[in-house]
Amino acid sequence: MFDPSQKAPVAAWDPVAPILATTGNGGSLALWDTSDRADPKLLVRTTLQGYPSTAFAHFSPDGRTLAVQGWDSSATTLVSVPDLHVMHTFTANEFGDGVLFTSDSKTVAVADINFTANALVEFRDVQTGARRAVVAVPYPEFSSMALVDGDKLLVTVQSAQLRGPKPDDVISRVDLWDVSTDRPVGEPIMVNGDAGMVEVDRPGGFRLVSSTSTNVGTDMVWDFNPADWPMIACRLAGRNLTQDEWKQYLPGRPYEVTCPQWPAGS
């Protein structure tokens, strides 16, 4: 245990180096060398503008960049590691609450939340700050996001907690987006209550876990690897598709037995 000399400190670990970032009220930010866990050494300290209350730091996968946000701030600040040089500051319409890096650390996705209009997710180049793409989310109650399938797909979650006095009575949705086209993939997945926060097993990975913040919600594990889907479908259905189902869902393709442990459908 050590005292970072910050009000309401929040910590984040560098995924590569033995560095701990701590943030506090008023935009305070510090990096600590934790080679000796019993005696962390201060590397650098600074104060960022635009964070009246507690700020939160998020490391890029390569550990070279920090994205800083605050729950009551419209700013998202990118700073370099380990010198804490301010690279870019992005300003949201109302709240910049939600940030993640692509697995190669070259792009950062920033949520732009406005409770009177639908949310946006902006993809920005880490080095230049240029906007690469924008995904328009079809709801203002944006809760969480993640990148899966080698960063090809963006997952966004609608929050029930922000939608009235009885979130347990609300149906929310999870949406999947093609990052290259900014277009939705498939139909929204409807969830009782909400799907809460989402987290991928590794940067750009296939397995996603979603928590819930409501009594009727369900904690779930999502598999976004298409190679696994036939096996999962066979296990859930316990049979092959019927001839009519095959024509409905796979028109123009010859019928196949996709579940070898079950007989062909009639």
| Main beta-sheet strand count, sense and barrel state | 5 strands, antiparallel
Q: Give the rounded overall mean pLDDT.
A: 91
Q: How many structural domains does the protein architecture include?
A: 3
Strand content: 35-45%
What is the terminal separation in angstroms? 66 Å
Order of helices and strands: EEEEEEEEEEEEEEEEEEEEHH
As a percent range, the share of helical residues equals: under 10%
Rg, Cα atoms, Å:
22 Å
CA-based shape:
elongated
Content-based structural category: mainly beta
Give start-end ranges of low-pLDDT stretches: none
- Continuous helix count: 2
Q: What's the total count of β strands?
A: 20
Topology (SSEs and partners):
Elements: E1 10-13, E2 19-24, E3 28-33, E4 41-47, E5 55-59, E6 65-70, E7 75-80, E8 86-91, E9 99-101, E10 107-114, E11 117-125, E12 131-136, E13 142-148, E14 153-158, E15 171-178, E16 183-184, E17 189-192, E18 198-200, E19 207-210, E20 220-223, H1 229-237, H2 243-249
Antiparallel strand pairs: 1-2, 2-3, 3-4, 5-6, 6-7, 7-8, 9-10, 10-11, 11-12, 13-14, 14-15, 15-16, 15-17, 18-19, 19-20
